[in-house]
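Note to self: keep these together.
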Amino acid sequence: MSRAISSRNAGRARPAAQHSTAGSADSAPTAVRSTVSERTGKVAVAVLVVLAAAACALMHFGTFGLLLGVMATLGIAAVAVAILSPRWIYALLGFLMACLANASIPGAGMSFGFVLTLLAWVAVLTHPVTHKRIHSMEIAVLALVIASFVATLVSAQNKHDVKLFLTWTVATSLVFLLLRLSSRDLLLFGRAFTLGTVAAALFGLFMLAFDKQGTLLNHLWFLGYGTGPDSGGTNLRYYLGADGTQAVRLSGTYIDPNAGGIFLFIGLGLSLALYRGTTRVVFSVVIAVAMLATLSRSAIAATVVAAIILVLFHRMRTASRTNLVIGMVVCAAAALSVPTVAERLLSSFGSSDKGSADRGSALAEYPSQMAGHWWFGRPWASPEFVDAKVNYQTNFVANSPLLSTYRGGVFVGLAFTAVLIVGILVAARRVRHRRFEVALLGAGFISFAITALQLDYPVVTLTPVTAVFSMFIAFMVAAPRVVTQAEPSPEPATESSPGAHRAPESGPRTVDPTPRPHAEPPVV
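Structure:
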């Protein structure tokens, strides 16, 4: 009798154990899926040792050989880290994407983001993938990449066009890369990006307060910033008011205040979604203040629209909705109490606003600018895209879908619009999610698509902004699982806690034959 009971109990417990094991694949601290196999590790180490020996041999062939050997050694070491300890690559990529978005590797002529993204792909391709399902958002992005590739084949005139297209493709590939990561690794990446955003925000605020000449950034010349430590060139960016007064805008390591506003907007969303408690409050306040200091109307407008979407469409208690509205009013009043911010926002789209006049003229000139370029656009390395002076003098249409058409032709423009439409449909489902943090990322994407991308175009013209937009897409798609992963782990129950289970007593087990009523179903 006791054997039959034990066998029956074991049969009932087995499915639960299987379910528990499958459910903890992402969250287990020592998950097997997050490490490389022993055999692969041994082969990788052997290959890397041989390559390192070859790199050392190069160092004996003059100055060029020494330089080539050092670079090869560093590259081999980076690949070794990507294979043997990929989480370091994910964290470093997320941090540097936000903190030093425009930095390049000294002497290599390549950005940190480009190289680290390739290393992250090495890590993903050499480890088992936990999430293999292809999302509809990925199909839309792939269609955009294919349309851009065809346009490049037709319009490219030299190797610089191909190089810029490949750089853009690597930045866009972050959508596919991040969605392959486990929830644990994706959370690590997102939190590292948030930390980098906070660091960049603090540095930008420091420059705004103390760097009155705008020369501090010149000391980062070895990373591709500024104009050199002794040049005396300024890195300040100004807003010209209606009365002719100038106000300095926060730019920091983002260089362009409008691009900085996009980074800070996305960083603000991730800080609210991926952190909890005091850390979330402090990080969000720092990032929000920095975003306001950029005076980027597209980023500020996107933030306001995202809050309105949450109030109108997210399912929440009346008290929570009321508190959110009160918080919005208080934040708006605090922002408008700053004279520069108030003038920047309240004068928008007025008759005295030069930006509105330029937008109107750009729209009027757009058909003539597109003459002869409707099908496949212009070369990627056209002067207005790569030369700062020509870019400043060119009155681009301040609209990302239209500018995508300007550069890549009508098929690229339609594909970019399709990405936004599919993204809005996916984000709408996120807004209706029961978790506030998931709804927040969905509302943020919708507001960004219908506001920021319609008022500005750095996502199209600047590769670092393309990369952060691709990252935003990935986090919006994976929001339910990564937000769940961000929740603090419950503390183990102790004997004194109400939910603790007592250890079974020794001795023979007795079975109570009295039937017991079924438990009531849980209230959802």
